[in-house]
# Entry
Amino acid sequence: MNIVIDSLEFTREGGRLEGNAPVGAFPRLADVLVDDNGSMRGSLHWELTGERQDGGRHTLTLRLQGNLSLRCQRCLETVIWPVDLESRLLLVPPGEEWPDDELADDRSDAIEADKALALLPLVEEEVLLALPIAPRHENCRPPAAFDEREPSPFAVLAKFRKGV
# Structure
């Protein structure tokens, strides 16, 4: 179920598409998700709109919503990470220069215009770029093995070195 569009034509027509995609449909994203039950559950809702702006610039706006199960990097349990993002993508026709001045403000990114732009890989890429580097619960403690009250194994080794 992959949708393919002509990106420039889509923006010229002011196109709009939306849908839901199961998280299992994203192979690279599946590598970072927690799958405790043996099956990838959940889905991402996506909405893509195209627009031709003043000056002849073509943009795609991608909105994503859903929940992902990630591994908390502190307690190693599952943490539900809500996805709620909007990406604005400036289409650059093949062979044209990339407009550095328009991309300097970080409000949009640029991608090369494509006559066969596959939407699910685009959705997956935007989610991967938005993932936290080290996901964790807002309030969680490290596992007991890492509790600060426990003596460090290195402290024990230091005693041997000092001859204590």
Remarks:
- The mean pLDDT is 83.
